[in-house]
Amino acid sequence: MIRVRAALEALMGANLISTNVMGGNIGQVLLGDLNATAGAGAFGALMGPQPNVITLKEVLTGMNTTHALSSPYQVVGSSAATIAPASPLQQAASNFQANLGNIVVGGIMQTAGWRIFNKISSKSVRRANAMIRRAGLGSTIQL
Hints:
Mean pLDDT: 79
Number of helices: 5
Radius of gyration: 20 Å
Largest sheet: 2 strands, parallel
Structural class: mainly alpha
Order of helices and strands: EHHHEEHHE
Strand content: 5-15%
Low-confidence stretches: 66-82
Distance between the termini: 10 Å
């Protein structure tokens, strides 16, 4: 059974983590850097290079492939003159530490917002679920 409100709540939580840890929304993280250049069409820009976003492709390859010059840098060795791009996982860990407060506050606010929304919309959700059951889709989808 697909529960639409639960799926939306999970998507919002994943987007909160994605934005604060990886630097972009879920679409940018999953689809970014699939093409060498930004493509045309509805989702073409999502599949091109994503500056300052750690993409799934970068995590799997372990390298900042398309935007090493614009990515955050870390000092390597004892000389400050030796600078190398941070690996995607190191940068994600650094972003997590830097944005932990945003993640906690955002998670609390999202949880509170969903509880309030569920209370306010409970009557209309019951009506919509009843209509879905009457249409014969009650075992497949639920709000």
